[in-house]
Design a protein that fits this description.
Number of strands: 4
Strand content: under 5%
Helix content: over 70%
Number of helices: 24
Strand order of the largest sheet: 1-4
Order of helices and strands: HHHEEEEHHHHHHHHHHHHHHHHHHHHH
Oligomer: single chain
Shape: globular
Distance between the termini: 61 Å
Largest sheet: 2 strands, antiparallel
Radius of gyration: 24 Å
Length: about 525
């Protein structure tokens, strides 16, 4: 396709984030007085933005990436980069935004500040679009900061709720630390490669990765990128604010858990080649992501509040996705991100139904732990299922170590599913259904992986050959996940022991990391 035509088509992409921003400004300046008109305009531009980006996405998938000309001065300005990654993320943002706008119309019906809520929601959604579509480094940084500040205004929408204000304050502090790290990383990247165009940066990083000539500034920037992602995605021990953001309006919770938490994963994937330049960055991703995934998924089962349990679930998913990025499995991480966003948006918007479901099913637990031989047998069955499916579709699990580590962890999850279903007292029909479900889950996993690689293509970094320290970290992550799976399987036999009861209390309180953060804030406030 002709370069001029490509540039003109890419310019159409500006209409998506710009339209939401314009509607928000018009409503803020009271040019749109009616709440109903504010709602209808916002919903219309969200749906229109989705349709526009869908059409542009079809062009991208058929003809290749599109980049708009830079609008600005020198290396600083606005440019849109439409590739498979940004297109898929923009589809998710606009579709989720339209659903949240519709839900908010009914949820906040009669609230005298509903119009203000719509304004803040439109600004936040627009900032997210500016960020995911960014083709310039400084545009990404500014949109990242604007997105965080706009979210803060949504979190404090009810200023008379002390717990919401406290959670927002902690989120504000961690976000500002992340902003500083991102700005420093951007400066280092610009110095190392002499450009702020994301496409040119990626090409320069790929060249540095190929010849082994890694600038010191780039290696430092990679570590800072990981820190920014960890702070944004509520990694342990900075997860406390996430489990306390429960007194904000439900649409805000859905937007946060299904959308903005994912920004950390998007950032790591967007700068995937840069992160591959630094082995410490990969190890940090595996360590932070893996520890958070294990901690949050364990703490989740000790919660009595459904929304707090969902918050821990979000932290666990974010941790697992960052760990996948540490393995180099960027395509799988993005597909996991999209699936988790859809699931978590539905979970929060239908939280009443979830409460009803938990009340009806929460007491159904196994009354015995499996025999150790049964655990090994189910593990062997899981390996056999994976090997059979992988062989049938022609996937070599030994080709890439990072992918092998990821598959090993998924095998552990399938083995746990088999352990739960194949008990001594389980009927043959239940065992059969469990085996069938394990096979279907395995097929779905490989199908999603193949689909992700086909769709994302060259838009994300490919699996790197892991260095020995990163490989050791990956193997350690697999072993630890296996130990946790075994502990979960034998949990019924341990539940009445004093040591487990103590662990249960510690898990319920999140190992008191959030309490320490609270004490720090209180001490700082008293000092001031």
């Amino acid at each position: 396709m002709d370069g001029v035509v490509v540039g003109n088509l890419a310019l159409l992409g500006y209409l998506a984030p710009l339209s939401l921003t314009v509607v928000a400004l018009m409503a803020a300046l009271n040019l749109v007085r009616s709440v109903d008109l504010t709602f209808h305009l916002g919903r219309a531009v969200s749906v229109g933005a989705f349709l526009l980006l869908f059409v542009l996405g079809i062009v991208v998938f058929t003809s290749g990436p599109m980049v708009s000309p830079l609008i600005g001065v020198g290396e600083a300005g606005i440019a849109l980069r439409l590739d498979a990654l940004s297109v898929m993320m923009s589809w998710l943002v606009t579709l989720l935004g339209a659903l949240l706008i519709q839900f908010s119309r009914n949820y906040l019906d009669g609230d005298p500040r509903q119009k203000l809520f719509f304004i803040r929601l439109y600004i936040t959604s627009g900032a997210v679009l500016w960020m995911v579509l960014a083709g310039n480094l400084w545009q990404l940084v500014l949109a990242w900061i604007a997105m965080s500040l706009a979210l803060h205004e949504l979190l404090v929408f009810y200023p008379d709720r002390p717990r919401a204000i406290r959670a927002a304050r902690k989120k504000f502090i961690t976000a500002r630390i992340g902003d500083v790290c991102l700005i420093v990383a951007a400066v280092l990247i610009a110095q190392a490669f002499g450009t702020t165009d994301l496409g040119m940066i990626r090409a320069a990083v790929a060249a540095a990765l190929a010849d082994g000539n890694v600038p010191a500034e780039a290696a430092t920037a990679a570590i800072l990128i990981v820190i920014v992602a960890a702070l944004k995605s509520a990694m342990f021990p900075f997860h406390g604010w996430l489990i306390e953001v429960m007194e904000t309006p439900t649409p805000v919770s859905a937007l946060l858990h299904a959308g903005l938490l994912n920004a950390g994963i998007f950032l790591v994937v967007r700068f995937g080649e840069l992160v591959f330049l630094s082995t410490p960055a990969l190890i940090l991703l595996i360590a932070l992501g893996g520890c958070t995934a294990l901690f949050a998924s364990s703490a989740m089962i000790a919660q009595t509040s459904v929304k707090v349990s969902l918050a821990y679930s979000s932290a666990a998913h974010m941790g697992f996705m960052l760990m996948l990025c540490g393995f180099g499995a960027h395509t799988v991480a993005i597909m996991h991100l999209i699936a988790h966003s859809c699931y978590k948006a539905h979970a929060f918007l239908s939280s009443g139904s979830i409460i009803e479901y938990v009340r009806n099913t929460g007491a159904q637990k196994l009354d015995q732990a499996p025999h150790p031989l049964a655990l090994l047998t189910n593990m062997a069955v899981a390996v056999a299922i994976f090997a059979a499916v992988a062989t049938a579709i022609g996937i070599d699990m030994t080709k890439r170590p990072g992918e092998t580590a990821m598959i090993a962890i998924f095998m552990l999850a399938v083995a746990y599913l088999l352990v739960k279903g194949n008990t001594n007292k389980a009927p043959v029909s239940v065992i059969g259904r469990t085996m069938l479900m394990a096979a279907l889950v395995t097929i779905a996993f490989f199908a999603l992986e193949v689909t992700a690689e086909a769709l994302l293509g060259q838009a994300v970094a490919v699996y790197p050959p892991l260095t020995m320290p990163a490989l050791i970290a990956a193997v350690t992550a697999v072993v630890v996940h296996g130990l946790v799976m075994a502990l979960s399987a034998f949990l019924p036999a341990l539940v009445n022991r004093p040591a487990w009861r103590a662990l249960y209390v510690h898990l319920k309180n999140g190992f008191y990391a959030n309490t320490l953060f609270d004490r720090f804030l209180d001490t700082f406030r008293l000092a001031r």
